[in-house]
Amino acid sequence: MPRIISDADMIYLRATPMPRALDSVQQSFVGMYPSSARTASFPPPTIITRAAADETLFPNEGNCRRFGQLGRAFAQRTADRWNDSKEMDYLNSLISKWMPEGGQRVAVDSHPRLSGIMDTVNSTLAHGPKTRLPSPFYDPKGREIIDKIGTEEWFSGYKESQEYRKLGIGALVGDIVTRMVGSAEGSGNDGLLEVAGVDGDLGKGRGGESGIKLALSGCHDTTLAAVLSSLGAFEGEKWPPYTSHIAVELFKDASIKTEDAMPTEPAPRQSFLGSSRKKTKPASLMMRKPTPELTAEEKAKLQGHYVRLRYNDRPVTIPGCKLPGNHLEGDETFCTLQAFKAIADKFTPRIWTDACVEGLDEPAFPISPEPAGF
User: Fold this and answer.
1) Distances in Å between the alpha carbon of 182 and those of 123, 150, 212, 218?
2) What is the value of pTM for the model shown?
């Protein structure tokens, strides 16, 4: 990345509609490029947001009907498993006297829910002593139990169900794969066509940029755990703490030479105003095409590219990337782009909104195990 920038058109910025998520991506950007690293003529950066009904940057239970069904089913299973357990008895011995309605029993599905209590405890720990609850809420054993149960309630579905992965986080993972494949093939589908352009002329940034070098997305703890769980990289983990992040890194083998690609343009959206875009090469669709359907020529464009996933600066390994031929020799954390895409393709919905209203009368749990990360 350059030390001083005159625009942000090599950076893809996106946030959910939640103000705290927008704050996170803005602060991250300003921390990386403070005013001393931006020219005086620096224009406002483009930050992409979507309407709440279309948002896929977090598990959108409220606007995906089938995912809501699945979420409630897995939450109920957790309640059935833990509500009458000795672990829940221990929690009640600590904090039940502070529950509303005359000492209501603490439970996965109590009011407030156990996960809500966890949120409150974590928030007060982050904000200092003036916000603290009574000391029993911070009992180390009690916090371990709450974390274990909360993590199971919210994230076990991603580990066990392909449908859960597809509806909960598959669209976002598909977007990430699209941008990486777009970068590998030099098509402009790396995000450049969304954030750059002068006077509607897409395909080149205001400073002459021809590709995206960095993408920052302001999201949520449920986003991070959902992505990691869906890729089989969240085993034994606790609930993501504050300031957690995932880095999805794309590398290229410098010894492999590829021809410079002329930017291509996605098929223009229909508009009552018509399309004024300039003609470029025909649109490439390989980024969303299932890996088994890729031609030999398309697969060749992915060769020499590797993906590494880091969670809070710690490289993690995706199970399917451990297989022979699916990683950089000597390091299983570097997954080949083709293998990573193949794993992600299995839970990337073709049309997320359509998938959200399919299977509404089907069982919530898969008939047989559907492990994540393969």
Assistant:
1) 39, 37, 10, 21
2) 0.89
